[in-house]
Amino acid sequence: MRDREAMREAFRRYYGGEPRFWVRAPGRVNLIGEHTDYNDGFVLPAAIEREMLFALSPRDDGMTLLRSLDYPHPVEFDLKMVEAAPEDPWGNYVRGVAWALQEAGVPLSGFHGVAQGDVPIGSGLSSSAALEVATALAYQAASGFEMDGVTMAKVCQRAENAFVGVNCGIMDQFVSRNAEDGSALLIDCRSLAYRAVPLPSDGVKLVIADTAKRRGLVDSEYNARRRECEAAVRLLSESLPGVTALRDVSVEQFEALADRLPEIPRKRARHVIMEDDRTLRAVERLEAGDLAAVGRLMNESHVSLRDDYAVSGPELDAMVELAWETPGVLGSRMTGAGFGGCTVSLVEDGAVERFCAEIPARYTPRTGLTPSLYVTRAAPGATVESSH
Ligand code: GLA
Questions:
Q1: What is the edge-to-edge ordering of all strands in the sheet holding 110-117?
Q2: Mutation pick for ligand 1 pocket among 168, 226, 343 (CB with most ligand atoms within 8 Å)
Q3: What is the pLDDT of residues 270-309, one digit of tens each?
Q4: Burial degree of 16 (CB within 10 A; 0-12, 13-18, 19+)
Q5: How far is the CA of 169 from the centre of ligand 1 (A)?
Q6: Relative to the CA of 222, which ligand 1 atom is closest?
Q7: Would you name the residues annotated as active-site residues?
Q8: What secondary structure does DSSP assign to 85-97, as a single string?
Q9: Could you give phi then psi for residue 385, rounded to 5 degrees?
């Protein structure tokens, strides 16, 4: 839990005085548009009511000092010498953002601060993006530079790609920084144009179910999928000149050429091309108030991720199947990179209590794992508060 009083006390104890700024950056859940961001496609994530919170004050000696109330390791480094510390994976997200901001030519002041977060770690709700975006905003508050939300998301993604060494797309950092209260964000991951798509404020809830299966395979399989998509693009561009990403191939073009592709590139491309189409249709259906259709598209997305993209797993499938069997569930699918982590379900208000009671009781005997459930609304993107 985030406890501002405990953070304030820790701040006084470690540094003296009161924090000048509070910054918060949320985790995310993706409603639909999975494994499309690095294919220049469309995604529809929302920020969740779990976040990373920093209390901080600027320093003028170029040092960054950050104490997490959740981790034993204090983070401490000089902005003139930012290097990865192998013994401190958490702190490396902070160092990575300092590095990427400076690489982008931004002059930085240091800060000292206290951090606390309640985005569950390693469960696919983007605790790392929340930490990166909180760090970028902390430097912005401390140093006073101008930077729009799209550029900041790109800088945070670069920190993760080039400093931490995880080859993620832009979705997680983008939505943590730029989300709007009560809405999901439709992001065009090629142009980075985006718009808020309001979610119904009553009648349905988003329920996230953490399978408690940790995502062992995720990095190597994620990189393998990226390579398979690139291979599919090369094959498709032989018949479709000008195609540089799966985003460029329409459903009709794909259907006309699918038989000529070997099985693996065919299945991977089919997932991505259909998923882009489903994402745009989901936005249209959401805006028309047709939640039943949105739910059906979520279900189709899961089947495609399971059968064509091969990134689900027995635990995710079990959780989704249990949701599909539960009355009042409009749709349910795995969310995030896959192999473990969370599902997202669109659940009618009247069915939420039953969902939260029955699904764990049926999931545990099937898998031996104890799941966690979070009912959330779409939260606002990252914010800074100044105390003077
Ligand atoms: C992870 C990555 C995102 C995205 C999803 C899959 O969350 O960080 O960029 O690729 O997987 O949709």
A1: 75-78, 63-68, 110-117, 45-59, 21-30, 383-386
A2: 168
A3: 999 999 999 999 999 999 999 999 999 999 999 999 999 9
A4: exposed
A5: 6
A6: 11
A7: 172
A8: -TT-HHHHHHHHH
A9: -120, 140
